[in-house]
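re: ur question from yesterday

yeah so i grabbed the chain u mentioned. its 400 aa long if i counted rite. heres the sequnce exactly as i have it in my notes:
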Amino acid sequence: MNNRISSGMMYDQSVFLMLARQSKLNHLERQLATGQKIVSAKDDPVASGTAVGMDRILAELTQLGSNAATAQNRLGLQENALAQAGELLQRVSELTIQANNAALSAADRKSSAAELRSIRDSLLSLANSTDGNGRFLFGGAADGAAPFIAAGGSVAYNGDQTQRQVEIAPGTFVQDALPGSEIFMRVRTGDGIVDGNAASGNTGQAVLTDIGRDGSANWNGESWTLRFTAPDTYEIVDAGSNVVGGGTYVPGEDIVFQGLRVRLNGTPDANDEFNVGTAGNRDVFATLERLAQALEMDASTLAGRTAQQNLLQSSLRDVARASEKLIDSRASGGAQLGAIDNAASLREANAITLKDSLSQLRDLDYAEAIGQYKLESAALQAAQTLFTQMQSMSLFNMIR
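ran it thru and got these structure tokens back, copy pasting raw so excuse formatting
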């Protein structure tokens, strides 16, 4: 087989060489203009795909940062609202202790009752706080309308029980603001486990001042009645009206029975009763209204004064539990805020690592690119010179 070298073949080869050099120069110029090593996916398909994946992760980190900012705002507003609510309940305790003073007049107690109702209204406003975007903090997932509605002297909760979780870093979630039912509505009475109250028909002057469990025995959760058979003796009656014990009463000393501990002050009458059992739930608004009504009671008689003191003592215990509930809620929110701060550090560290990896994949080494550009420019000039020389060559020149 004979291979023939023609002028046309040499011409085509020279043109192809110049076009290849020109294409390479154009590519280098685009790299230098953009500062990126990968101008199009075909430059490095694997690196290009990896970079797109990293871009997606960076975008997700940015969105997670926005999530964290929103959650931080809501939790911060929750903290502010609960702090103010705690101050209001502190004032309630002060008013209750003040009202329990026998020297206080009926008019003074009614004035305190009016202040208590004002505090109740302020607490209701805090419970209906918004996050600045028209969403209610304590409504759970149903946060488009006010969660607490006052009607007929009571307050109803119209939110739901959902506490949303917000992703603030890859695989890291925090809980949003607590639903209001957990903060303001489901508040345990008494000491949180055991509660007690004086029977409405009592005629003596005994006041229930303290109640709880006896650490030396186990309480089975049953309800009991402490019934006085005389001013200095009592009996313990179970839910079936069976007498299961008794003893001698000394004012100010603990009465211990069936794993429970009860302390009374004052002198009871025969047949006076005090009921003891499992603590129930009472919303904080009902507690304040109950307390205001206690201050408005007729305390002109010893029996009326004693009934009032029993209600005040019971309300003090309930207010203390409501205050503890607020403290627990603030602690829960504080833990979430701490988690948000930690997540911010994690997001920042991940973003720095990703951006460094992206830089290695995409960013152009200008020194190397400029050197390559000069080499390609020289090669193009050489190819152009060769093409010019080939154009001037002809076999006719050789046979002259």
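noticed a couple things. The chain is about 55% helix and 15% strand. also The longest strand covers residues 207-213.
anyway ttyl
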